[in-house]
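Hmm, what's this shape?
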Amino acid sequence: MEEEKELPYINHRRGLVTLSPLVVFFVVYVISSIAAGDFYKMPVAVAFLIASAWAFVVSKPKRLAQRVDRFSAGAAHRNIMMMLWIFILAGGFANSAKHIGAVDAMVNLTLGVLPANMLLPGLFLAACLISLSIGTSVGTIVALMPMAVGLASGAGLDSALMAGAVVGGAFFGDNLSFISDTTIAATRTQGCAMQDKFRANFRIVLPAAVVVLVLYGAMGWAQPSAVHVAATNYWLVLPYLLVLVCAIAGMNVMRVLFLGIAATCVTTLFLEGVSFFDWASAVGTGITGMGELIIVTLLAAGILELIRYNGGLSYIISHLCRGIRGKRSAECSIALMAALANICTANNTVAIVAVGNIARRLAHRFGIAPARSASLLDTASCVIQAVLPYGAQLLMAATLAGLSAIDIIPHLYYPFCMAVTALLFIIFGLGSTAIPARKAR
Protein backbone atom coordinates (compact mmCIF):
# COMPACT_ATOMS: atom_id res chain seq x y z
CA MET A 1 0.00 0.00 0.00
CA GLU A 2 2.93 2.31 0.59
CA GLU A 3 3.95 1.91 -3.04
CA GLU A 4 0.64 3.41 -4.15
CA LYS A 5 1.31 6.54 -2.05
CA GLU A 6 4.58 7.12 -3.86
CA LEU A 7 2.64 7.92 -7.04
CA PRO A 8 -0.23 10.21 -5.92
CA TYR A 9 -3.33 10.62 -7.99
CA ILE A 10 -3.89 13.86 -9.88
CA ASN A 11 -7.59 14.45 -9.28
CA HIS A 12 -9.43 16.35 -11.99
CA ARG A 13 -12.79 16.22 -13.69
CA ARG A 14 -11.72 14.68 -16.99
CA GLY A 15 -12.51 11.14 -15.85
CA LEU A 16 -13.96 9.82 -19.09
CA VAL A 17 -11.17 11.38 -21.12
CA THR A 18 -8.61 9.83 -18.78
CA LEU A 19 -10.16 6.38 -19.32
CA SER A 20 -10.41 6.82 -23.10
CA PRO A 21 -7.11 4.97 -23.93
CA LEU A 22 -8.82 1.73 -22.87
CA VAL A 23 -11.69 2.52 -25.23
CA VAL A 24 -9.20 3.22 -28.02
CA PHE A 25 -7.53 -0.15 -27.46
CA PHE A 26 -10.82 -2.05 -27.56
CA VAL A 27 -12.00 -0.21 -30.65
CA VAL A 28 -8.73 -0.70 -32.52
CA TYR A 29 -8.22 -4.34 -31.53
CA VAL A 30 -11.62 -5.87 -30.90
CA ILE A 31 -13.84 -3.89 -33.27
CA SER A 32 -11.35 -3.94 -36.15
CA SER A 33 -10.79 -7.69 -35.66
CA ILE A 34 -14.53 -8.33 -35.68
CA ALA A 35 -14.87 -6.23 -38.84
CA ALA A 36 -12.06 -8.21 -40.48
CA GLY A 37 -13.49 -11.49 -39.22
CA ASP A 38 -10.08 -12.54 -37.93
CA PHE A 39 -8.51 -11.76 -34.54
CA TYR A 40 -5.05 -12.37 -35.97
CA LYS A 41 -5.35 -9.54 -38.52
CA MET A 42 -4.67 -6.77 -36.00
CA PRO A 43 -1.51 -7.40 -33.93
CA VAL A 44 -2.29 -6.71 -30.28
CA ALA A 45 1.03 -4.87 -29.90
CA VAL A 46 0.01 -2.39 -32.60
CA ALA A 47 -3.35 -1.83 -30.90
CA PHE A 48 -1.56 -1.06 -27.63
CA LEU A 49 0.90 1.22 -29.44
CA ILE A 50 -2.00 3.28 -30.85
CA ALA A 51 -3.67 3.36 -27.40
CA SER A 52 -0.34 4.46 -25.88
CA ALA A 53 -0.07 7.35 -28.32
CA TRP A 54 -3.61 8.46 -27.39
CA ALA A 55 -2.79 8.15 -23.67
CA PHE A 56 0.11 10.57 -24.16
CA VAL A 57 -2.23 13.02 -25.90
CA VAL A 58 -4.88 13.10 -23.14
CA SER A 59 -2.64 12.76 -20.07
CA LYS A 60 -0.98 15.25 -17.77
CA PRO A 61 1.55 16.69 -16.91
CA LYS A 62 1.97 19.02 -19.85
CA ARG A 63 5.63 18.32 -20.57
CA LEU A 64 6.10 15.29 -22.80
CA ALA A 65 9.25 14.22 -20.92
CA GLN A 66 7.26 13.97 -17.69
CA ARG A 67 4.58 11.89 -19.34
CA VAL A 68 7.27 9.57 -20.72
CA ASP A 69 8.72 9.27 -17.21
CA ARG A 70 5.33 8.37 -15.76
CA PHE A 71 4.65 5.86 -18.57
CA SER A 72 8.10 4.31 -18.01
CA ALA A 73 7.55 4.17 -14.24
CA GLY A 74 4.43 2.08 -14.82
CA ALA A 75 6.22 -0.24 -17.23
CA ALA A 76 9.17 -0.63 -14.86
CA HIS A 77 7.10 -1.35 -11.74
CA ARG A 78 8.59 -4.27 -9.83
CA ASN A 79 5.43 -6.38 -10.26
CA ILE A 80 5.65 -5.90 -14.03
CA MET A 81 9.36 -6.73 -14.08
CA MET A 82 8.71 -9.88 -12.04
CA MET A 83 6.15 -10.98 -14.63
CA LEU A 84 8.65 -10.36 -17.43
CA TRP A 85 11.28 -12.57 -15.77
CA ILE A 86 8.66 -15.28 -15.42
CA PHE A 87 7.75 -14.91 -19.10
CA ILE A 88 11.41 -15.26 -20.09
CA LEU A 89 11.96 -18.37 -17.95
CA ALA A 90 8.63 -19.87 -19.02
CA GLY A 91 9.53 -19.44 -22.68
CA GLY A 92 12.91 -21.09 -22.15
CA PHE A 93 11.47 -24.03 -20.22
CA ALA A 94 8.45 -24.61 -22.46
CA ASN A 95 10.48 -24.72 -25.67
CA SER A 96 13.37 -26.76 -24.25
CA ALA A 97 10.92 -29.29 -22.77
CA LYS A 98 9.13 -29.52 -26.10
CA HIS A 99 12.45 -29.87 -27.98
CA ILE A 100 13.64 -32.89 -25.97
CA GLY A 101 10.19 -34.52 -26.07
CA ALA A 102 9.25 -34.00 -22.39
CA VAL A 103 5.84 -32.50 -23.18
CA ASP A 104 4.95 -35.27 -25.65
CA ALA A 105 6.05 -37.90 -23.14
CA MET A 106 3.94 -36.31 -20.39
CA VAL A 107 0.94 -36.15 -22.72
CA ASN A 108 1.29 -39.83 -23.68
CA LEU A 109 1.68 -40.80 -20.02
CA THR A 110 -1.50 -38.89 -19.11
CA LEU A 111 -3.43 -40.38 -22.04
CA GLY A 112 -2.33 -43.83 -20.96
CA VAL A 113 -3.52 -43.33 -17.37
CA LEU A 114 -6.57 -41.10 -17.72
CA PRO A 115 -9.46 -41.90 -20.12
CA ALA A 116 -9.91 -39.30 -22.84
CA ASN A 117 -13.45 -38.52 -21.67
CA MET A 118 -12.04 -37.48 -18.27
CA LEU A 119 -9.32 -35.16 -19.56
CA LEU A 120 -11.34 -31.94 -19.31
CA PRO A 121 -12.55 -32.37 -15.71
CA GLY A 122 -9.19 -33.88 -14.75
CA LEU A 123 -7.24 -30.92 -16.15
CA PHE A 124 -9.57 -28.40 -14.48
CA LEU A 125 -9.26 -30.20 -11.14
CA ALA A 126 -5.46 -30.36 -11.47
CA ALA A 127 -5.32 -26.61 -12.16
CA CYS A 128 -7.53 -25.96 -9.11
CA LEU A 129 -5.30 -28.02 -6.82
CA ILE A 130 -2.00 -26.62 -8.13
CA SER A 131 -3.17 -23.01 -7.95
CA LEU A 132 -4.54 -23.58 -4.44
CA SER A 133 -1.13 -24.95 -3.44
CA ILE A 134 1.08 -22.27 -5.00
CA GLY A 135 -1.30 -19.29 -4.83
CA THR A 136 -0.51 -17.97 -8.29
CA SER A 137 -2.53 -18.26 -11.47
CA VAL A 138 0.46 -17.39 -13.68
CA GLY A 139 2.55 -20.20 -12.19
CA THR A 140 -0.28 -22.69 -12.70
CA ILE A 141 -0.76 -21.66 -16.34
CA VAL A 142 2.99 -21.93 -16.99
CA ALA A 143 3.09 -25.42 -15.47
CA LEU A 144 0.02 -26.88 -17.17
CA MET A 145 -0.61 -25.08 -20.45
CA PRO A 146 1.97 -26.90 -22.64
CA MET A 147 0.58 -30.24 -21.46
CA ALA A 148 -3.00 -29.05 -22.01
CA VAL A 149 -2.26 -28.18 -25.63
CA GLY A 150 -0.55 -31.53 -26.18
CA LEU A 151 -3.49 -33.37 -24.61
CA ALA A 152 -5.91 -31.47 -26.85
CA SER A 153 -3.95 -32.57 -29.91
CA GLY A 154 -3.59 -36.17 -28.75
CA ALA A 155 -7.25 -36.61 -27.77
CA GLY A 156 -8.77 -34.55 -30.59
CA LEU A 157 -10.10 -31.82 -28.27
CA ASP A 158 -10.34 -28.09 -28.90
CA SER A 159 -7.13 -26.37 -27.74
CA ALA A 160 -9.04 -23.21 -26.71
CA LEU A 161 -11.38 -25.34 -24.58
CA MET A 162 -8.46 -27.02 -22.81
CA ALA A 163 -6.75 -23.65 -22.33
CA GLY A 164 -9.95 -22.27 -20.80
CA ALA A 165 -10.07 -25.16 -18.33
CA VAL A 166 -6.50 -24.43 -17.19
CA VAL A 167 -7.05 -20.68 -16.85
CA GLY A 168 -10.32 -21.21 -14.97
CA GLY A 169 -8.78 -23.67 -12.55
CA ALA A 170 -5.80 -21.36 -12.08
CA PHE A 171 -8.09 -18.61 -10.79
CA PHE A 172 -9.81 -20.99 -8.36
CA GLY A 173 -6.61 -21.11 -6.31
CA ASP A 174 -5.65 -17.50 -7.01
CA ASN A 175 -8.95 -16.53 -5.39
CA LEU A 176 -8.77 -18.90 -2.39
CA SER A 177 -5.16 -19.79 -1.57
CA PHE A 178 -3.79 -18.56 1.78
CA ILE A 179 -0.53 -17.57 0.09
CA SER A 180 -2.14 -15.77 -2.86
CA ASP A 181 -1.33 -12.05 -3.19
CA THR A 182 -5.01 -11.29 -3.64
CA THR A 183 -5.96 -13.09 -0.41
CA ILE A 184 -3.27 -11.26 1.53
CA ALA A 185 -4.28 -7.89 0.07
CA ALA A 186 -8.00 -8.46 0.65
CA THR A 187 -7.64 -9.62 4.26
CA ARG A 188 -5.21 -6.86 5.19
CA THR A 189 -7.28 -4.06 3.70
CA GLN A 190 -10.51 -5.36 5.28
CA GLY A 191 -9.00 -6.31 8.63
CA CYS A 192 -10.13 -9.95 8.81
CA ALA A 193 -8.49 -13.31 9.43
CA MET A 194 -7.50 -15.40 6.43
CA GLN A 195 -9.51 -18.40 7.59
CA ASP A 196 -12.66 -16.26 7.89
CA LYS A 197 -12.17 -14.88 4.39
CA PHE A 198 -11.53 -18.41 3.07
CA ARG A 199 -14.80 -19.70 4.53
CA ALA A 200 -16.82 -16.77 3.18
CA ASN A 201 -15.11 -17.01 -0.21
CA PHE A 202 -15.42 -20.79 -0.45
CA ARG A 203 -19.20 -20.60 -0.07
CA ILE A 204 -19.34 -18.29 -3.11
CA VAL A 205 -17.02 -20.19 -5.46
CA LEU A 206 -17.78 -23.82 -4.53
CA PRO A 207 -21.12 -23.89 -6.43
CA ALA A 208 -19.39 -22.41 -9.49
CA ALA A 209 -16.57 -24.98 -9.34
CA VAL A 210 -19.02 -27.88 -8.97
CA VAL A 211 -21.16 -26.68 -11.89
CA VAL A 212 -18.11 -26.31 -14.14
CA LEU A 213 -16.71 -29.70 -13.10
CA VAL A 214 -20.04 -31.36 -13.97
CA LEU A 215 -20.16 -29.42 -17.25
CA TYR A 216 -16.66 -30.55 -18.21
CA GLY A 217 -17.58 -34.11 -17.28
CA ALA A 218 -20.65 -33.97 -19.54
CA MET A 219 -18.63 -32.46 -22.39
CA GLY A 220 -15.94 -35.10 -22.02
CA TRP A 221 -18.46 -37.93 -21.94
CA ALA A 222 -19.06 -37.52 -25.66
CA GLN A 223 -15.36 -38.17 -26.34
CA PRO A 224 -14.05 -41.69 -27.01
CA SER A 225 -12.81 -43.31 -23.81
CA ALA A 226 -9.62 -44.56 -25.41
CA VAL A 227 -7.12 -42.99 -27.78
CA HIS A 228 -3.99 -44.28 -29.44
CA VAL A 229 -0.88 -43.73 -27.31
CA ALA A 230 2.41 -43.60 -29.18
CA ALA A 231 5.48 -45.44 -27.92
CA THR A 232 7.37 -43.07 -25.64
CA ASN A 233 10.55 -42.91 -23.57
CA TYR A 234 8.91 -42.12 -20.25
CA TRP A 235 12.22 -41.01 -18.70
CA LEU A 236 11.58 -37.81 -20.60
CA VAL A 237 8.71 -36.92 -18.27
CA LEU A 238 11.09 -36.32 -15.36
CA PRO A 239 11.71 -32.59 -16.07
CA TYR A 240 7.99 -31.97 -16.37
CA LEU A 241 7.16 -34.03 -13.28
CA LEU A 242 9.81 -32.08 -11.37
CA VAL A 243 8.12 -28.81 -12.32
CA LEU A 244 4.67 -30.07 -11.33
CA VAL A 245 5.83 -31.53 -8.00
CA CYS A 246 7.75 -28.37 -7.07
CA ALA A 247 4.78 -26.21 -8.05
CA ILE A 248 2.39 -28.26 -5.91
CA ALA A 249 4.88 -28.08 -3.03
CA GLY A 250 4.55 -24.29 -3.13
CA MET A 251 8.02 -23.43 -4.43
CA ASN A 252 8.48 -19.95 -5.93
CA VAL A 253 7.57 -20.01 -9.62
CA MET A 254 10.95 -18.60 -10.72
CA ARG A 255 12.81 -21.33 -8.83
CA VAL A 256 10.49 -23.93 -10.36
CA LEU A 257 11.25 -22.71 -13.88
CA PHE A 258 15.00 -22.52 -13.25
CA LEU A 259 14.91 -26.12 -12.02
CA GLY A 260 12.85 -27.13 -15.04
CA ILE A 261 15.35 -25.60 -17.49
CA ALA A 262 18.24 -27.24 -15.63
CA ALA A 263 16.44 -30.59 -15.71
CA THR A 264 15.95 -30.39 -19.48
CA CYS A 265 19.66 -29.65 -19.83
CA VAL A 266 20.64 -32.69 -17.73
CA THR A 267 18.19 -34.88 -19.67
CA THR A 268 19.79 -33.73 -22.92
CA LEU A 269 23.11 -35.26 -21.81
CA PHE A 270 21.52 -38.73 -21.91
CA LEU A 271 19.75 -38.35 -25.26
CA GLU A 272 21.24 -39.44 -28.56
CA GLY A 273 21.06 -36.97 -31.41
CA VAL A 274 20.49 -33.94 -29.15
CA SER A 275 23.56 -31.88 -28.31
CA PHE A 276 24.07 -29.20 -25.68
CA PHE A 277 23.99 -26.56 -28.39
CA ASP A 278 20.65 -27.90 -29.67
CA TRP A 279 19.29 -27.51 -26.13
CA ALA A 280 20.73 -23.99 -25.82
CA SER A 281 19.23 -23.03 -29.17
CA ALA A 282 15.81 -24.32 -28.02
CA VAL A 283 16.01 -22.28 -24.81
CA GLY A 284 17.02 -19.18 -26.78
CA THR A 285 14.20 -19.64 -29.28
CA GLY A 286 11.71 -20.00 -26.43
CA ILE A 287 12.93 -16.80 -24.80
CA THR A 288 12.81 -14.74 -28.01
CA GLY A 289 9.36 -16.19 -28.71
CA MET A 290 8.12 -14.27 -25.67
CA GLY A 291 9.11 -10.96 -27.30
CA GLU A 292 5.62 -9.87 -28.33
CA LEU A 293 4.18 -10.81 -24.94
CA ILE A 294 6.84 -8.75 -23.16
CA ILE A 295 6.26 -5.73 -25.42
CA VAL A 296 2.49 -5.91 -24.94
CA THR A 297 2.92 -6.15 -21.15
CA LEU A 298 5.19 -3.08 -21.06
CA LEU A 299 2.85 -1.01 -23.23
CA ALA A 300 -0.22 -2.03 -21.22
CA ALA A 301 1.49 -1.25 -17.91
CA GLY A 302 2.53 2.19 -19.16
CA ILE A 303 -0.99 3.06 -20.35
CA LEU A 304 -2.59 1.88 -17.14
CA GLU A 305 -0.14 3.89 -15.02
CA LEU A 306 -1.03 7.07 -16.93
CA ILE A 307 -4.73 6.31 -16.37
CA ARG A 308 -4.16 5.70 -12.65
CA TYR A 309 -1.95 8.73 -12.17
CA ASN A 310 -4.36 11.04 -13.96
CA GLY A 311 -7.29 10.10 -11.76
CA GLY A 312 -9.03 7.36 -13.73
CA LEU A 313 -9.50 5.18 -10.65
CA SER A 314 -10.55 8.15 -8.52
CA TYR A 315 -13.21 9.00 -11.09
CA ILE A 316 -14.63 5.48 -11.08
CA ILE A 317 -14.61 5.14 -7.29
CA SER A 318 -16.20 8.54 -6.65
CA HIS A 319 -19.07 7.81 -9.04
CA LEU A 320 -19.71 4.31 -7.71
CA CYS A 321 -19.97 5.53 -4.13
CA ARG A 322 -22.78 7.94 -4.93
CA GLY A 323 -26.32 6.97 -4.07
CA ILE A 324 -25.55 3.88 -1.96
CA ARG A 325 -28.63 3.33 0.22
CA GLY A 326 -28.40 -0.16 1.69
CA LYS A 327 -26.32 -3.25 2.34
CA ARG A 328 -26.88 -4.91 -1.01
CA SER A 329 -26.08 -1.79 -3.02
CA ALA A 330 -22.96 -1.35 -0.86
CA GLU A 331 -21.89 -4.94 -1.63
CA CYS A 332 -22.54 -4.35 -5.33
CA SER A 333 -20.44 -1.16 -5.17
CA ILE A 334 -17.56 -2.99 -3.47
CA ALA A 335 -17.56 -5.66 -6.19
CA LEU A 336 -17.90 -3.10 -9.00
CA MET A 337 -15.09 -0.96 -7.61
CA ALA A 338 -12.75 -3.94 -7.58
CA ALA A 339 -13.83 -4.99 -11.08
CA LEU A 340 -13.40 -1.54 -12.65
CA ALA A 341 -10.13 -0.92 -10.82
CA ASN A 342 -8.90 -4.23 -12.23
CA ILE A 343 -9.82 -3.15 -15.76
CA CYS A 344 -7.73 0.00 -15.21
CA THR A 345 -4.72 -1.79 -13.68
CA ALA A 346 -4.79 -5.31 -15.23
CA ASN A 347 -3.56 -6.56 -11.85
CA ASN A 348 -6.02 -7.98 -9.34
CA THR A 349 -3.77 -7.42 -6.32
CA VAL A 350 -3.17 -3.76 -7.18
CA ALA A 351 -6.91 -3.31 -7.81
CA ILE A 352 -7.76 -4.65 -4.34
CA VAL A 353 -5.18 -2.38 -2.69
CA ALA A 354 -6.44 0.64 -4.67
CA VAL A 355 -10.05 0.34 -3.48
CA GLY A 356 -9.52 -1.56 -0.23
CA ASN A 357 -9.78 1.36 2.18
CA ILE A 358 -12.96 2.71 0.59
CA ALA A 359 -14.48 -0.80 0.58
CA ARG A 360 -13.65 -1.15 4.27
CA ARG A 361 -15.40 2.13 5.12
CA LEU A 362 -18.46 1.07 3.13
CA ALA A 363 -18.52 -2.31 4.86
CA HIS A 364 -18.28 -0.63 8.28
CA ARG A 365 -21.01 1.87 7.42
CA PHE A 366 -23.54 -0.70 6.13
CA GLY A 367 -22.88 -3.61 8.47
CA ILE A 368 -21.00 -5.89 6.07
CA ALA A 369 -18.72 -8.41 7.77
CA PRO A 370 -15.00 -7.85 6.96
CA ALA A 371 -14.67 -11.41 5.65
CA ARG A 372 -17.61 -10.78 3.33
CA SER A 373 -16.18 -7.57 1.88
CA ALA A 374 -12.75 -9.24 1.50
CA SER A 375 -14.27 -12.18 -0.40
CA LEU A 376 -16.27 -9.85 -2.66
CA LEU A 377 -13.15 -7.80 -3.46
CA ASP A 378 -11.10 -10.89 -4.24
CA THR A 379 -13.81 -12.63 -6.27
CA ALA A 380 -14.69 -9.59 -8.40
CA SER A 381 -11.05 -8.81 -9.17
CA CYS A 382 -10.29 -12.44 -10.10
CA VAL A 383 -13.33 -12.63 -12.40
CA ILE A 384 -12.18 -9.58 -14.36
CA GLN A 385 -8.50 -10.54 -14.37
CA ALA A 386 -9.39 -13.95 -15.79
CA VAL A 387 -11.18 -12.50 -18.83
CA LEU A 388 -8.99 -9.46 -19.57
CA PRO A 389 -7.46 -9.94 -23.04
CA TYR A 390 -4.52 -7.77 -21.93
CA GLY A 391 -4.09 -9.43 -18.52
CA ALA A 392 -0.88 -11.34 -17.86
CA GLN A 393 -2.67 -14.67 -17.41
CA LEU A 394 -4.56 -14.68 -20.72
CA LEU A 395 -1.58 -13.29 -22.60
CA MET A 396 0.63 -16.04 -21.19
CA ALA A 397 -1.98 -18.74 -21.87
CA ALA A 398 -2.49 -17.54 -25.44
CA THR A 399 1.26 -17.41 -26.12
CA LEU A 400 1.90 -20.93 -24.77
CA ALA A 401 -1.14 -22.35 -26.54
CA GLY A 402 -0.45 -20.61 -29.86
CA LEU A 403 -3.86 -18.93 -29.78
CA SER A 404 -5.38 -15.48 -29.48
CA ALA A 405 -6.65 -14.38 -26.06
CA ILE A 406 -10.03 -13.78 -27.73
CA ASP A 407 -10.09 -17.47 -28.75
CA ILE A 408 -9.88 -18.54 -25.10
CA ILE A 409 -12.34 -16.07 -23.52
CA PRO A 410 -15.56 -17.86 -24.69
CA HIS A 411 -14.29 -21.03 -22.97
CA LEU A 412 -13.64 -19.45 -19.55
CA TYR A 413 -16.62 -21.18 -17.95
CA TYR A 414 -15.40 -21.02 -14.37
CA PRO A 415 -14.84 -17.21 -14.19
CA PHE A 416 -18.27 -16.60 -15.75
CA CYS A 417 -19.94 -19.03 -13.33
CA MET A 418 -18.05 -17.43 -10.45
CA ALA A 419 -19.44 -14.02 -11.48
CA VAL A 420 -23.00 -15.42 -11.55
CA THR A 421 -22.74 -17.10 -8.14
CA ALA A 422 -21.21 -13.95 -6.58
CA LEU A 423 -24.07 -11.87 -7.99
CA LEU A 424 -26.65 -14.34 -6.64
CA PHE A 425 -25.00 -14.29 -3.21
CA ILE A 426 -25.28 -10.49 -3.17
CA ILE A 427 -28.86 -10.28 -4.48
CA PHE A 428 -30.26 -12.92 -2.09
CA GLY A 429 -27.96 -12.14 0.83
CA LEU A 430 -26.61 -15.70 0.88
CA GLY A 431 -23.78 -16.44 3.30
CA SER A 432 -24.01 -12.96 4.80
CA THR A 433 -23.24 -12.44 8.48
CA ALA A 434 -25.49 -9.81 10.01
CA ILE A 435 -23.67 -7.12 11.98
CA PRO A 436 -25.04 -3.73 13.06
CA ALA A 437 -24.77 -0.96 10.49
CA ARG A 438 -22.95 2.20 11.59
CA LYS A 439 -24.24 5.72 11.29
CA ALA A 440 -22.40 7.97 8.89
CA ARG A 441 -20.07 10.37 10.64
Q: What stands out?
A: Residues 1-9, 436-441 have pLDDT under 50 and may be disordered. The longest helix spans residues 194-221.
